[in-house]
């Protein structure tokens, strides 16, 4: 459809057709979908080795936050992301602040009951939370965008843009509402296929002025959880796509041009399979490390809070004594003694100070997470 940019340049915007309820896929694509589904099942099985798999949610969400933000041009080193105190954002740089906003968004999305229908208001709440306090907090934050957006080189004119999503207005709103209807009442297709189709449609509509990529990739995890493919959000999808950014962007664009669902779904399923395998390997390594840390504590003659904290470090690789006191229900002196015991055992090491509190790191945990 023809559109006119504020600078007077003209061009054509793309309005995707509503999602179909059936697709024809090649044998190779079906194989990729089946492999992705099996890899997700293995990840879910690895998580169930833990009495409380939610313990690993924090590092998984932080890793996803760091990588999905990097895909959009906001980079913060993973060690800084893992160590950051979300309750003390006044001392964070703008990049780290924005990355941690994604953690808030993810936890909000994961808190909604899976049987609850996803609505336009809920999506808007995610987007508003994501951009709060950042340069993306534009007047239309939390609502569908009120401006024309272009995808391509920064500063490009409309007539040279790589891709132009639908202009703001009734057609954009209708497209997003149709997508939500499809998402809430999906067709009888494997959940991996559903997630691939939802992701394409969301990115093609590009409903918000900022944050579309990050929200779109978060919806992948939400949809896999709603489809009961995984039970905990331990899947980290963005590193695979970040490492293949040109191919990822080209695959989305090619589907808009050709309508070839099979090619896009095959690429997407390959990424999900690789991501689930990598995430599962980290979960298995952390489960094994948890047992090792408990054994080291016992062999060191310690029990109680020291053993509990050592066990929890697989989900909390950076701690200070205040956090330890709150988590283990200890006095400040008791927390300090517990931390000192783990330092003596080589399980924790001091890495610096945040304000007046010394920060400690579990190096065996961070090696697994940062590898």
Automatic annotation (TrEMBL):
Boundaries of each Fido domain copy? 118-270
Q: Which residues cross the membrane?
A: none
Annotated protein name in UniProt: Fic family protein
**Protein species of origin:** Conexibacter stalactiti
């Amino acid at each position: 459809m023809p559109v006119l940019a504020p600078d007077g340049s003209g061009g054509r915007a793309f309005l995707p057709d509503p999602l179909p309820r059936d697709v024809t896929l090649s044998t190779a694509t079906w194989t990729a979908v089946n492999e992705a589904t099996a890899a997700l099942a293995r990840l879910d099985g690895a998580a169930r080795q833990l009495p409380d798999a939610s313990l690993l949610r924090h590092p998984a969400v932080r890793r996803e936050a760091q990588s999905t933000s990097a895909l959009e041009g906001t980079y913060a080193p993973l060690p800084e992301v893992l160590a950051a105190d979300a309750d003390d954002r006044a001392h964070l740089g703008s990049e780290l602040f924005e990355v941690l906003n994604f953690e808030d968004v993810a936890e909000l999305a994961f808190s909604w009951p899976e049987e609850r229908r996803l609505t336009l208001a809920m999506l808007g709440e995610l987007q508003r939370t994501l951009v709060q306090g950042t340069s993306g907090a534009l007047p239309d934050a939390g609502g569908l965008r009120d401006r024309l957006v272009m995808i391509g080189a920064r500063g490009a004119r409309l007539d040279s843009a790589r891709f132009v999503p639908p202009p703001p207005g009734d057609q954009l709103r209708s497209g997003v509402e149709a997508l939500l209807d499809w998402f809430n009442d999906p067709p009888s297709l494997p959940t991996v296929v559903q997630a691939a189709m939802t992701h394409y449609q969301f990115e093609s509509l590009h409903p918000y002025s900022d944050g579309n990529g990050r929200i779109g990739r978060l919806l992948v995890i939400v949809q896999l959880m709603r489809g009961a493919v995984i039970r905990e959000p331990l899947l980290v999808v963005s590193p695979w796509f970040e490492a293949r950014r040109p191919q990822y962007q080209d695959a989305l664009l090619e589907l808009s041009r050709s309508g070839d669902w099979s090619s896009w779904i095959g690429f997407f399923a390959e990424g999900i399979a690789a991501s689930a395998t990598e995430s599962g390997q980290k979960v298995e390594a952390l489960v094994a490390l948890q047992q090792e840390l408990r054994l080291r504590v016992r062999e060191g003659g310690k029990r109680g809070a020291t053993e509990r904290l050592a066990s929890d470090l697989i989900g909390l690789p950076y701690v200070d004594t205040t956090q330890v006191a709150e988590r283990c229900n200890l006095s400040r002196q008791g927390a300090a003694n517990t931390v000192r015991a783990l330092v003596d055992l080589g399980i924790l090491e001091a890495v610096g100070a945040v304000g007046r509190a010394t920060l400690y790191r579990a190096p065996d945990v961070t090696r697994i997470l940062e590898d």
